[in-house]
Amino acid sequence: MVDQANQLRERVMQKKSKKERRQTRTIAVTSGKGGVGKSNFTLNFALGLIRQNKKVLLFDGDLGFANVDVLLGRSPKETIATMLEKDLSVWDIIEEGPEGLLFISGGSGFNELFRLDEQRMDKFFKELSVLQGVVDYILLDTGAGLSYENLRFILAADDVVLVTTPEPTSITDAYSIVKMVHAKDPNVHLKLVVNQCTNDKEGHDTIANFQRVTEQFLEKKLGALGCIPSDGNVPSAVKKQSPFLLAYPHCDASQAIHRITGEYLQLPVPYKLGLKGFLLKMLFK
Ligand SMILES: Nc1ncnc2c1ncn2[C@@H]1O[C@H](COP(=O)(O)OP(=O)(O)OP(=O)(O)O)[C@@H](O)[C@H]1O
Ligand SMILES: [Mg+2]
């Protein structure tokens, strides 16, 4: 276990001189309604970023549900919860997925995070902040809805991707998230992704309508990364426990992920808290 963790640490930190330290940026992926495709999006977006030569760590923060593990057909023994319980290092709980994707599972009991005693909170901060400068992006797959925990993640991240489908129920719930987040902090960088669209027109219309409503009622111009079609290869890949970007690299959903990744990477990066800022804001604010 210790050897394995050391090997992973050495491999990840390899060739990383001070000059090469990465600008770690945190991205929370959330939705109003559950089951809209957040976990599939997060995993495949992570792989899309890796294809663009980025180093990515995926953090499964969906409290109680080990979504990403299931999508990858993995069941990590160690999680954030056991790291705190057994006094492990962060390297003991990082798993290596396909294409060099790193991932951490929250584990059951992770929802206790915001109720930890000071000593455990410090341990969590100390261990996680080691990753600052080591990866380019930390993607956080959050739960759906407006729970206290979700809001903490959203308000602490550098970017927030809000996933919705074109269905009115999903849009209404997504709008509630925007309203709540906007009330807490109007500077949060929310970016919309519309998943499971019948066609491109439906996706683009959904984005345009959503942007119009937020502009009209909140005076907020909501960013958008694009839309993903409804694609039968997605559930097929889920059944195979393989990310669709790898199982069906040329399918419509995979092509959409590449477009969205390209769109994300060319956005200006106006401000950045980085990982330490994220942890401080999430834990102590
Ligand atoms: N673009 C798509 N085309 C077809 N099916 C999709 C698409 N995206 C997701 N799905 C299907 O929708 C279901 C839910 O996806 P996923 O688990 O990613 O959602 P989620 O938002 O993470 O759910 P939860 O809120 O429960 O965590 C899956 O069965 C998946 O196969
Ligand atoms: Mg999920």
TrEMBL record:
<dbReference type="InterPro" id="IPR027417">
    <property type="entry name" value="P-loop_NTPase"/>
</dbReference>
<dbReference type="InterPro" id="IPR033875">
    <property type="entry name" value="FlhG"/>
</dbReference>
<dbReference type="GO" id="GO:0009898">
    <property type="term" value="C:cytoplasmic side of plasma membrane"/>
</dbReference>
<protein>
    <submittedName>
        <fullName>Cobyrinic acid a,c-diamide synthase</fullName>
    </submittedName>
</protein>
<dbReference type="InterPro" id="IPR033756">
    <property type="entry name" value="YlxH/NBP35"/>
</dbReference>
<feature type="compositionally biased region" description="Basic residues">
    <location>
        <begin position="14"/>
        <end position="24"/>
    </location>
</feature>
<keyword id="KW-0547">Nucleotide-binding</keyword>
<dbReference type="GO" id="GO:0005829">
    <property type="term" value="C:cytosol"/>
</dbReference>
<feature type="region of interest" description="Disordered">
    <location>
        <begin position="1"/>
        <end position="26"/>
    </location>
</feature>
<keyword id="KW-0067">ATP-binding</keyword>
<dbReference type="GO" id="GO:0005524">
    <property type="term" value="F:ATP binding"/>
</dbReference>
<dbReference type="GO" id="GO:0051782">
    <property type="term" value="P:negative regulation of cell division"/>
</dbReference>
<dbReference type="InterPro" id="IPR050625">
    <property type="entry name" value="ParA/MinD_ATPase"/>
</dbReference>
<dbReference type="InterPro" id="IPR025501">
    <property type="entry name" value="MinD_FleN"/>
</dbReference>
<dbReference type="GO" id="GO:0016887">
    <property type="term" value="F:ATP hydrolysis activity"/>
</dbReference>
<dbReference type="Pfam" id="PF10609">
    <property type="entry name" value="ParA"/>
</dbReference>
